[in-house]
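Assemble and predict.
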Amino acid sequence: MELVVDIWRGAADGAFQSYPVTVRPGQTVLDLVVYVQRHLDSTLSYRYACRVGMCGSCAMTVNGVPRWTCRTRIGTVSKGGKLTLAPLRNLPHIKDLACDMAPFFDKLAAARGCFVPGRPGAGDMAPIAPSNRRRQAVDAAIECIGCGVCYAACDVVAWRPDFVGPAALNRAWTLVNDERDGDRPDRLAVVAGDAGCHVCHSQQNCARHCPKALNPTASIAGLKRAAALALLKGEL
Ligand code: SF4
Ligand code: SF4
Ligand code: FES
């Protein structure tokens, strides 16, 4: 298939540049980007690592939609022989297809995305039955690969850059439900704050685009319920 791919070049004040390419069946968008960099313009900047949907580093905006590019086949997204590639939205552009992920990871930290042991001692493992309701809530949300696709898809992040966003809140929800975690009250207080879960409008852009089929909107709704309950109990 003959294709013209328009790729964003430069930083925020850059412009699209067109490259004519020949695409073989089954190739992914990331294959195409690698081809352009290796054969047409070696100065093209972008980011990837695993190529198999595990690291989350290859996310870009493909025809206006945030996607992981190593698992997106060109044939499923090209329109009329055209493809447009840009860096993820809602993050500072560094150069070409590479954006600065620091704000995204800073917000994971701000939402207290690190596990805090509730009990000391490596031998003090807590057995959690698979039927445990809180464990099931964790299982449903735990497979996040930190790709930033949901963050780029979130209009509220675009309108309110201080909003911690879907991935950070999804992570907080897994920890709030972790029986072993010792930071639940403080974590809930942080995520229920001014730029936290209550800012979410619940329209599910994040869930629609998450390549791991997670539902951060549901996690955020869980945080809202947990925060309200904690407030009623006088814990917040
Ligand atoms: S929740 Fe989904 S879209 Fe968001 S960072 Fe995690 S894997 Fe990516
Ligand atoms: S549902 Fe909430 S977190 Fe998800 S995209 Fe919408 S505002 Fe953002
Ligand atoms: S390169 Fe690792 S998820 Fe795409």
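The radius of gyration is 20 Å.
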